[in-house]
């Protein structure tokens, strides 16, 4: 028979295992799957590539991706770089050096409903900027440069950086000045141009090239055998 202390120890162990299992399940549940689309911002400090979370913030993703496809972020800039916190992209209506056409302006001036989620604000996450109105987000967004749990559930997360952390580290080294609550770079960090692609299409193209090479190699081998057996 087990003594009372052994029973207590087993009960504690079971409780701990249940707690850990729940915590792990909860953590896994809040890590969403990236869609296949990728966007690349080409800055004067290097490239930053990111993907979207369409299952988390579908309206936000559709809006931002449309702005990218329209070229709205070209000549825009990062107006805020707070080391260990965020690098924030300016609103395109006022941050670009190039004028906007009517189609771009109409899309850029739209506001998006706040799609808040339980996804955590950690380094590399993309999070919409907004005013006090939770449904006031437009085109400005932040790239997290560190963990910021105080933002969780308050700002709409819609994607994450997939490549370019070395560029983010360069941005963190840029000299800054403080204006009110904002830490701002003393020199302009320009988004020179942008482009996008689909990883699924790229994968299919790669598969086609591999298959083509294999078929070519097979054809060469068949010809060798033909020459050997039927000179």
UniProtKB/TrEMBL annotation:
One MF term from GO for this chain? peptidyl-prolyl cis-trans isomerase activity
**Chain ranges of the PPIase cyclophilin-type domain:** 40-196
A Pfam family name for this chain? Pro_isomerase
Could you confirm whether the keyword Isomerase appears in this record? Answer: yes
| Superkingdom classification of source | Eukaryota
Keywords, in A-Z order = Isomerase, Rotamase
State its Enzyme Commission number(s): 5.2.1.8
Q: Which reaction does it catalyse?
A: [protein]-peptidylproline (omega=180) = [protein]-peptidylproline (omega=0)
* Protein role: PPIases accelerate the folding of proteins. It catalyzes the cis-trans isomerization of proline imidic peptide bonds in oligopeptides.
Concerning its family, UniProt says: Belongs to the cyclophilin-type PPIase family.
Give the protein name, as stated in the record. Peptidyl-prolyl cis-trans isomerase
